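can u do me a favor
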């Protein structure tokens, strides 16, 4: 391709180059990559002409200039390479011939004069120099010198990669600590912040090592967008700056053909998100490769792993959920997974990954995005549970959510999400974009889940509370309407949808009222109770208020604000308490089928078991617990029935979603709703036989579960959850003491609770058990051996004992 007159320097004179450069930058039709490439070619011609004929000498562009990516105010990174045959004065004269015209032009010049050996030695001691040499490009002189330099730089880079890549990663982490994350900053540094141009260059260096490669989908476009923005920034400001200052964002947006500063930031944030995600995936892969190369993991696998054909040792694959396994520190799809036939798999895989504290493999996320079918509307109960489980995982949910979002799965599941995705918040109190703020609020809400009776509603409200931002009008009002649509699609019934809509509509009510109104004025409390008419909803609103503020930033929450909000919530709860209905009515008589199971247990003197599937959609509209497989078990009353049965279910990897337990005519009748962690359901006869063995002690469920729990804990070490909470519910029943247990769901949890209650010497007369995502919310009606409620002191002691067992 022949250069046009506008982009050609006719000679080596500075004024000729300056005029051509000016025309190219301000009068030409070129923009973006073509303009950067044309500017690089123009500069190449000028510098080559300055060098002139030279033997044993080469002029080499390195770094960004070496890549041919010159922004209007970019430094010129140039090396004068010589073979050492000429004396120093001659080399100095050649250097002056090139450097001084550049300085006279007022251009920033990063220059060096080296022999190949000196360049190699400098690169060995300076990582940044070595990175620059990977982009070395010949400008003029002896081309063989440049080719040899490039070959040596790449050979050394690949040979030294196990040592240099960790150093490169540490440089990036240090930049991130100093500069922050580009996609959350109102005035980001396009080059140095995390997700910026430095990180994109680092990914190129990783690929050059041949150890790992970055996900390429969208990466080059993201990098180009950041470069285009920097070009516009240089032209608008007339300075060599990478900081996207607020006062210049509108002009830069106009230069790029965007509607305004917010549109500019969204584009920049999206690009930075792509680079950051690619960096996360790439560095994870680098770590895995380097660990494998160390030899020790391989030795462990050879000695204790599974051998395959030809001595190949397969990496261990640990089941996490149906269709999901752990492999090499990631959650991946099982070989038997069929996303095209399993629309719940994306959410199930995400929930399993987050609960295990693992990243979701990018290959798995990509396959799910490409092949998983759409969820039916409304969602099946399993999908709703998986969403709540994902959100309830706390901090590990962030990376998993990012993996789903990177592949477009979040917007497919929640179309409302696209409008808030990467949306900036110009209030300096906010530290996140709208979408990340919503996820961070869910993380904070997960830590508060033990304080509410419906943690599932708290988590979903946290995810949706600002979903109306960016829409016309008040975002709380817009969010209420969007939440009604989303909640119905997710599968919440009318009553729960109304609670969610109320929480979103009034998520600012408590903090604004508490900080702006007189709490002693009855009208202040009435403003709250008029908007939130149920104690349970008020409890949720209080927790959502705290989670929202904590996720906003340090300036949004303080001990003073917390005390004011708590005082207002307490006063409003007292006002609502007078007319509050009992939380849970007494259970009615058993059904005819349940009565037959009880009769069989009493007739045989042993367990009676019935297992059946309950079709989707047969639960009441406002029922919080999921439908699924129903398991009915009746056992003649005897000590240890509850922990034995719960232990049996855990041994068979049956997850308890809900349960109702009660004493009927001398037997304990237990109605369970269960789901398999993975695999198929056991046969009823097998369950009965194993329960007999657990009850008579021939099957040691305690030991078996302890082994499994130890393995479970090993795989999830370092993951923290909100501590369990066991309280005595006042006024819950006239005939028994009600203990409420709120804890993180885990294999064998109900078994541990049952053993703790048995060790405390109390009888469980009935129970209401529910698992809401990853949170267990259970109520146990207990009495003394004589069948009377516990004294207040004894009840408090039992609650403390159970809490200590679960916390240990």
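np, heres the sequence
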């Amino acid at each position: 391709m022949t250069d046009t007159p506008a982009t050609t320097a006719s000679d080596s004179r500075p004024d000729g180059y300056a005029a051509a450069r000016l025309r190219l930058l301000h009068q030409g039709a070129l923009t973006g990559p073509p303009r950067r490439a044309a500017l690089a070619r123009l500069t190449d011609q000028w510098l080559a002409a300055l060098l002139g004929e030279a033997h044993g000498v080469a002029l080499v562009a390195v770094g960004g200039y070496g890549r041919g990516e010159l922004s209007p105010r970019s430094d010129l990174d140039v090396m004068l390479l010589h073979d050492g045959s000429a004396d120093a004065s001659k080399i100095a004269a050649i250097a002056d011939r090139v450097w001084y015209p550049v300085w006279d032009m007022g251009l920033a010049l990063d220059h060096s004069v080296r022999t190949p050996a000196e360049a190699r030695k400098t690169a060995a001691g300076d990582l940044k120099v070595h990175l620059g040499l990977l982009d070395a490009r010949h400008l003029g002189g002896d081309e063989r010198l440049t080719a040899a330099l490039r070959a040596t730089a790449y050979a050394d880079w690949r040979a030294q990669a196990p040592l240099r890549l960790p150093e490169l990663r540490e440089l990036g982490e240090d930049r991130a600590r100093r500069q922050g994350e580009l996609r959350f900053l109102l005035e980001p540094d396009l080059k140095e912040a995390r997700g910026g141009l430095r990180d994109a260059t680092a990914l190129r260096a990783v690929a050059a090592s041949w150890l790992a490669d970055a996900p390429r989908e969208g990466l080059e476009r993201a990098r180009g967008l950041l470069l285009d923005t920097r070009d516009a920034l240089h032209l608008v400001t007339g300075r060599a700056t990478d900081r996207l200052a607020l006062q210049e964002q509108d002009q830069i947006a106009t230069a790029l053909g965007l509607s305004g500063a917010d549109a500019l930031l969204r584009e920049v944030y999206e690009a930075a998100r792509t680079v950051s995600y690619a960096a996360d995936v790439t560095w994870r892969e680098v770590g895995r490769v380097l660990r494998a190369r160390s030899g020790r993991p391989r030795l462990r696998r050879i000695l204790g792993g599974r051998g395959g054909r030809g001595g190949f040792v397969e990496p261990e694959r640990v089941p996490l959920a149906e269709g999901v396994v752990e492999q090499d520190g990631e959650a991946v799809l099982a070989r038997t997974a069929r996303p095209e036939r399993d629309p719940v798999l994306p959410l199930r895989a995400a929930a399993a990954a987050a609960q295990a504290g693992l990243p979701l493999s990018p290959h798995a996320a990509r396959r799910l995005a490409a092949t998983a079918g759409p969820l039916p509307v409304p969602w099946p109960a399993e999908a709703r549970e998986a969403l709540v489980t994902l959100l309830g995982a706390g901090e590990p949910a962030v990376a998993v959510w990012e993996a789903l979002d990177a592949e477009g799965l979040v917007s497919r599941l929640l179309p409302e999400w696209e409008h808030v995705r990467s949306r900036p918040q110009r209030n300096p109190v906010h530290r996140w974009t709208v979408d990340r703020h919503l996820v961070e609020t869910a993380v904070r809400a997960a830590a508060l889940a033990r304080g509410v009776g419906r943690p599932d509603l708290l988590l979903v409200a946290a995810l949706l509370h600002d979903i109306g931002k960016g829409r016309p009008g008040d975002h709380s009002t817009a969010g209420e309407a969007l939440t009604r649509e989303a909640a119905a699609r997710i599968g919440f019934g009318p009553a729960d949808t109304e609670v969610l809509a109320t929480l979103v509509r009034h998520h600012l009510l408590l903090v604004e009222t508490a900080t702006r109104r007189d709490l002693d004025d009855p009208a202040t409390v009435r403003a709250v109770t008029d908007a939130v008419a149920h104690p349970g909803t008020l409890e949720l609103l209080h927790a959502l208020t705290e989670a929202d503020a904590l996720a906003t930033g340090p300036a949004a929450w303080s001990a003073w604000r917390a005390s004011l909000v708590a005082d207002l919530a307490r006063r409003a709860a007292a006002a609502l308490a007078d007319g509050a209905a009992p939380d849970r009515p007494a259970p009615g008589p058993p059904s005819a089928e349940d009565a037959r199971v009880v009769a069989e247990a009493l007739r045989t003197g042993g367990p009676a078991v019935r297992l059946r599937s309950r079709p989707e959609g047969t639960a009441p509209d406002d029922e919080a617990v999921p439908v699924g497989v129903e398991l009915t078990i009746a056992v003649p009353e005897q000590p240890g029935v509850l922990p034995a049965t719960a232990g049996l279910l855990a041994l068979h990897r049956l997850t308890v979603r809900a349960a109702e337990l009660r004493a009927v005519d001398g037997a304990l009748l237990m109605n369970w709703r269960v789901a398999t962690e993975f695999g198929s359901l056991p046969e009823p006869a097998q369950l009965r036989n194993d329960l007999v063995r657990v009850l008579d002690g021939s099957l040691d469920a305690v030991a078996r579960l302890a082994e499994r729990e130890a393995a479970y804990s090993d795989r999830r070490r370092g993951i923290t959850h909100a501590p369990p909470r066991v309280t005595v519910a006042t006024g819950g029943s006239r005939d028994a003491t009600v203990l409420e247990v709120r804890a993180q769901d885990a294999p064998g949890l109900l078994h541990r609770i049952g053993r703790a209650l048995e060790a405390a010497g109390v009888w469980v007369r009935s129970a209401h058990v529910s698992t809401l995502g990853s949170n267990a919310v259970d109520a146990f009606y207990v009495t003394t051996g004589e069948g009377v409620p516990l004294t207040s002191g004894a009840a408090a002691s039992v609650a403390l004992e159970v809490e200590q067992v679960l916390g240990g």
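The first helix runs from residue 14 to 26. hope that helps!!
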